[in-house]
Specification:
Elements: H1 5-17, E1 32-33, H2 46-59, H3 67-71, H4 74-87, E2 91-95, H5 98-109, E3 115-119, H6 124-133, E4 136-140, H7 145-158, E5 164-169, H8 181-190, E6 194-198, H9 213-217, E7 226-230, E8 240-244, H10 246-255, H11 257-260, H12 267-282, H13 285-304, E9 315-321, H14 323-335, E10 338-339, E11 342-343, E12 353-358, H15 365-381
Parallel strand pairs: 1-10, 3-4, 3-5, 5-6, 6-7
Antiparallel strand pairs: 2-8, 7-8, 9-12, 11-12
Helix pairs in contact: 2-12, 4-12, 5-6, 5-10, 7-8, 13-15
Bound molecules: pyridoxal-5'-phosphate (PLP).
Pyridoxal-5'-phosphate binds near residues 198 and 240.
């Protein structure tokens, strides 16, 4: 399509007609938010705001330059060390966002003539990272580690000297299910490939200490050498990091263009994340409370006949299929004080529009009861 101004107007009208037009809306201050990724209830915690304000008073609002110029400060350095420690890896490198971390890290590890194997439901930033890397991209069916193994073995036979990487969300952002990391790790090791796990939604939530999907599966840096984490979800702050062995991280620092050619995030943001990390470690009740709420929510849904998929994480999708129906239910819930956003294609595959319900330690038992009651009513009103 030639994108003339008229064509853009027609394109927007077509999105409207298909119930696929996207709009940003301001949050309703009194509604209960079941769509944010603030799983531990830290985003509005006063300790983060306080740490941010103190760091702003010391260092100012802006970092002034890229990390490798003069933008790197003591809060960044301390946070990198603490993050590496938290996930049990030798070293960590901060990025401005998870999107940029994925673009930078994948591009540092594979290039033209190499292979990336990508789960069919990977996050958009991983898909774009694969495309931008110029490596050959092959998708394997969602969770299909056996398929990934076959594809990798076949490709490896013809490319003994090239780099390969298996790339996956550790917890899938729109489904809440877990990647088969142990099997993917075995497959990557057998065929000499990197394994990159993007643990945006597992970090702070999964594992006995909230160290994420690797702790959940008991996988070290040999099994999952490239671990990406984001800081804007369970940690309630902003930013991202990659963690792994020292040489790998130093290589990424040399090569990742989204690390090198961009202004370092403000130090107050890093200071807030450090405060969040301390709370995640010292207040284990947040994670156990969250797990209790997930169990409670699923139990109530089973009783009320609200059909859920098998997720054990705070991401609990309710599949509705049709985009118009998903919007109707979402709007109906908002009128009753609940924010449960509809997720539509192309974020999810065609015909699988859904409500993506995200639970948080800050929800009360009554919030959960109200949610399930209204979901059940909505399903009968909008069949
Ligand atoms: C949110 C998300 C990202 C992007 O992280 P940002 O810091 O928000 O850019 C990357 N990967 C996954 C799986 C995510 O869910």
């Amino acid at each position: 399509m030639r994108r003339t101004p008229d064509a853009l107007r027609d394109g927007l009208a077509a999105l409207d007609a298909a119930q696929l037009r996207r709009r940003a809306s301001l949050p309703s201050p009194n509604a209960i938010d079941f769509s944010s990724n603030d799983y531990l209830g830290l985003a509005r915690h006063p300790a983060l705001a306080k740490a941010m304000a103190a760091a702003a008073a010391s260092y100012g609002a802006g970092s002034g330059a890229a990390h490798l110029v003069t933008g790197h400060g003591p809060e960044h350095a301390a946070l990198e060390a603490e993050l590496a420690d938290f996930v049990g890896r030798e070293s960590a490198l901060l990025f401005a966002t998870g999107y940029m971390a994925n673009l930078g890290v994948v591009g540092a590890l594979v290039g033209r003539g190499d292979l990336v194997l990508s789960d069919a439901l990977n996050h958009a930033s991983l898909i774009d990272a694969c495309t931008l890397s110029r490596a050959e991209m092959q998708r394997f069916p969602h969770l299909g580690h056996a398929s990934a193994g076959h594809l990798l073995a076949e490709w490896r036979a013809g490319h003994p000297a090239a780099s390969a990487a298996i790339i996956t969300d550790a917890v899938f952002s729109m489904d809440g299910d877990l990647a088969p990391l142990p099997e993917l790790a075995a497959c990557a090791r057998q065929h000499g490939a990197w394994l990159l796990a993007d643990d945006a939604h597992g970090l702070g939530v999964l594992g006995a200490h909230g160290r994420g999907s690797c702790e959940h599966f008991n996988l070290d840096s040999e099994a999952v050498p490239v671990l990406v984490g984001t800081l804007g979800k369970a940690f309630g702050s902003f930013g991202a990091f990659v963690a792994g062995e020292r040489d790998l991280i130093d290589w990424i620092l040399q090569k990742a263009r989204t690390y090198i050619y961009t202004t370092a995030p403000p130090q107050p943001v890093a200071a807030a994340t450090r405060a969040a990390l301390r709370l995640a470690e010292s207040e284990g009740w947040r994670r156990t409370r969250l797990l209790t709420l997930i169990g409670d929510f699923r139990g109530r849904c089973a009783t009320a006949g609200v059909p859920l998929s098998a997720s054990t994480t705070p991401i609990q999708p309710l599949l509705l299929g049709d985009s118009g129906r998903a919007l109707q239910v979402s709007e109906w819930l908002l009128e009753r004080g609940l924010i449960v956003k509809a997720i539509r294609p192309p974020t999810v595959p065609a015909g699988s529009a859904r409500l993506r319900i995200a639970l948080s330690a800050r929800h009360s038992d009554r919030d959960i009861a109200k949610l399930v009651e209204l979901l059940a009513e909505a399903l009968s009103l909008f069949p």
